[in-house]
Design a protein that fits this description.
- Pfam families: Transgly (PF00912).
- Its EC number is 2.4.99.28.
- Pathway: Cell wall biogenesis; peptidoglycan biosynthesis.
- It is found in: Cell membrane.
- Its main location: membrane.
- This protein is mainly alpha-helical.
- The chain folds into 2 domains: 1-30; 31-220, Orthogonal Bundle (Penicillin binding protein transpeptidase fold), CATH 1.10.3810.10.
- It is built from 10 helices and 3 strands; from the N terminus they run H-H-E-H-H-H-H-H-E-E-H-H-H.
- The chain has helices at 2-27, 36-47, 67-76, 88-99, 111-120, 127-143, 146-156, 166-174, 183-192, 206-219, and strands spanning 55-56, 158-160, 163-164.
- Strands 1-3-2 form a 3-stranded mixed beta sheet, covered by helices on one side.
- Helix 3 packs across helix 10 and helix 5 (111-120) packs across helix 6 (127-143).
- The longest helix is centred in the first third of the chain and has 26 residues, at 2-27.
């Protein structure tokens, strides 16, 4: 009986392993049109008796303003082009700050980690999910280019209530296409990313404008995102 259970367990683990590899390979080439985060937000809206809001349109990286990758790198992950998915300096700094502060814990997630979480996993803070996040981060860093990671990130990240990706936020908050976003628009969008359902790029307050200016200053020291060869 135990041998049979172990055999089934190994089979399930093997199938999950193969399917995870396959999904990463497929998403290397195929647009990500729906994510677990979008699904969970839809369930939240239904549970709260709200109308379902889901705005998302996939666009290629070349159809996105060149300032948008620069803005999110400046805001979220300044060593994105140089690490392999995990920024150990940022993790160490976050750990030190969390030990010495009673405020909300600060994370050290990279753009690669956020992409892995948004595309392949559910939301939460369990050790199982964090372990799977590390696993999928390793996979996409191994199988995808930095350009592909950035493209998927900018198309899948939550940027407002029911708004996912830069094309949707460009249309709904600025009335333009993603490629026409200005440098300040991109900095303002990036300023909301720690909590895009609390902070709005459509109707920003003084704090958002302050963050936008800080990000714009950081953008001066970051080169335009390189094209894939």
């Amino acid at each position: 009986m135990i041998k049979k259970i172990l055999k089934i367990f190994r089979l399930v683990v093997g199938l999950l392993f193969v399917s995870s590899i396959l999904s990463v390979v497929i998403y290397r080439f195929v647009p990500v049109v729906f994510t677990p985060l979008m699904l969970s937000r839809c369930f939240e809206q239904m549970r709260n008796g709200e109308d379902i809001k889901l705005y998302h349109s996939w666009v290629s990286l070349k159809e996105i303003s060149p300032y948008m990758p620069v803005a999110v790198i400046a805001s979220e992950d300044q060593r994105f082009l140089y690490h392999h998915g995990f920024d150990y300096k940022a993790i160490e700094q976050a750990a030190k700050e969390n030990l010495n502060s009673s405020k909300r814990l600060r994370g050290g997630s990279t753009i690669s980690q956020q992409t892995a979480k948004n595309v392949f996993l559910w939301q939460g803070r369990s050790w199982i999910r964090k372990g799977l996040e590390a696993y999928f981060t390793f996979l996409i860093e191994t199988m995808w280019s930095k350009q592909r990671i950035m493209e998927v990130y900018l198309n899948s990240i939550e940027m407002g209530n029911g708004i996912y990706g830069v094309q949707a936020v460009a249309k709904h908050h600025f009335g333009v296409e993603a490629k026409d976003l200005s440098r300040s628009n991109c900095a303002l969008i990036a300023a909301t990313l720690p909590n895009p359902r609390r902070f709005s790029s459509k109707s920003p307050g003084p704090y958002m404008y302050k963050r936008m200016k800080q990000i714009e200053r950081q953008m001066l020291f970051i080169k335009l995102f390189p094209k894939e060869h």
